[in-house]
Prior knowledge:
Layout: H1 14-21, H2 25-33, E1 40-41, E2 47-48, H3 51-65, H4 70-98
Antiparallel strand pairs: 1-2
Helix pairs in contact: 3-4
Amino acid sequence: MANRDSTGRGLYAISVVAELVGTGQQNIRLYERRGLLTPERTDGGTRQYSESDLAVLRRIGELLDEGLNLAGVAKVLELEMDNTRLRRQLKLARARNARPDDGD
Length: 104
């Protein structure tokens, strides 16, 4: 998941993110290994997280609190992203269909 600020860069170190979302750094690393988020990396390999990454981590926490395991969390996040993408495509298709045809 490409999650960056408006300049395209991550903003926070893992220690700050862990404190902001109320989880451990090891949990965040586990979520990354499971493919639930992909933080930006500096040239030296340091993780840098964006506001969008924080939102994903908060959503992961919500889903875990609801009793899902990490496999379930991954599936829900995937379905939510698909739903968002499909809604965007539907909105564009409806906008195209709402325009009057020039040739008729």
